[in-house]
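All the exercises in this workshop are built on plain-text protein records. An example says more than a description, so a record of this kind follows:
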Amino acid sequence: MNKESSRNDRKQLVGVVRSKTGDKSIKVVYEYKIPHPLYKKEIRRKTTVHAHDEENELGIGDVVEITESKPISKNKSWVVTKVVSKAQELI
């Protein structure tokens, strides 16, 4: 297996920063819809993952793209690759 192709197989998600959990760490929530197995109604689900923010620049409400990586700590296995949009500050 080519090393370059395995790096491209990493999962990528787009989610919203829900909290800053420590130095260079954030929690990202991404939502998705699945059909109910019996009734076929769409159900909203969400998953929270811990991600590494190397620049320590993100705040709550920012939309980010994260990529799967090797484990950084006990819970962190995702790295922020791109900031899609910053949160609007309330005046």
User: Anything to note?
Assistant: The mean pLDDT is 91. DSSP finds one helix and five strands in the chain.
